[in-house]
Amino acid sequence: MHELSITQEMLDLVLEQAEKEGAREVGKINLVIGEMCGVVEDSVRFYFDFLKKGTIAEKATLSFTMIPTKAKCRNCGKIFELKEFEWTCPDCGGDSLEIVGGKELQVESIEVE
Amino acid sequence: MEIKVLKDILGANEQIAERNRRLLDKNGIFALNIMSSPGAGKTSLILQTIRNLKGKVKVGVIEGDVSSTYDAEIVAKEKVPVLQINTGGGCHLDANMTNNALTNLPLQKIELLFIENIGNLICPAGFALGEHNKVLVSSTPEGDDKPYKYPMMFHEVDVVLINKIDLLPYVKFDVEAFTRAVKGINRKVKIFPISCVTGEGIDRWVSWLLVQMGKSISRR
Predict the structure, then answer these.
(1) Is A110 on the interface with B (CB under 8 A)?
(2) What are phi and psi of B71, to 5 degrees?
(3) Between A and B, how many CB-CB pairs are < 8 A?
(4) Cβ(B153)–Cβ(B123) under 8 Å?
(5) B195 Cβ partners below 8 Å, 6+ apart?
(6) Within an 8 Å CB–CB cutoff, is residue A113 touching chain B?
(7) What SS3 class is residue B67?
(8) HSE-CB for A82 with a 13 A CA cutoff
(9) What is residue B141's predicted lDDT score, i.e. its pLDDT?
(10) pTM for the whole structure
């Protein structure tokens, strides 16, 4: 459900950047989303189609790069993907971990005319 | 033409949250964002803490709910300033809603502000409000597997209160396994087992809270 406000914020950010560049139209929006944020791609697309109407992003499409949740073992330094119910290092069994990926929620770039 | 943007989608929310933080600091207020799933005991925690601090600290409360003023009415009986936000379906509070609430509270009469978020373990984790600390209430009947299911929430918070420990004999909840999982991804987190029904553990939580308030105010 937070996708509605996230999509609105994303669109506001895109329009602000596009206007700054003097763009007439936004073609493609490249997003980078960390798995940990719990953002559902279909839901963002649904809200986006609704919110973009009447803006210069009306014809824009969304491209998602999803980033898996990654942890770094504080004991041995190994970086690995964090799986549900497996929060230990696959190499040394350490359970003190630093999250190093999966929190991203970014507009990476936009294509404009 | 491709334009690099590389900006956080929730950057605008962060900016308003920062403004809220400055407003709170200027008024000498220490603010907590209280989060949990529905029914874990956020309101009960606030009530217990208010009673414990009666006559010592001036408390104010922002109550976030999808609808109703039920919680605000209960809290108002404690004779503290309280403001209800109804999100009308929204699943979390954001910095802007909090800002509106702050402008309608008597800030000069508040030293400690509780912001009770919407009951939800997903969305509130991503939206800063301007709080000084994020507090998660995780109750024993929910099970000890919650850190694995909602890692973002457990990663973001400063304190986890394990509520309803009076129910430990009846529910499947391994305090040690839960603590290990939470500490595994959040090294700085403080964990306090409490019961808002029996009052067990509340003193330890309140002592910690007073120390945090003191530290925060002396830093300003």
Answers:
(1) yes
(2) -65, -40
(3) 104
(4) no
(5) B163, B164, B165, B166, B201
(6) yes
(7) coil
(8) 31
(9) 98
(10) 0.93
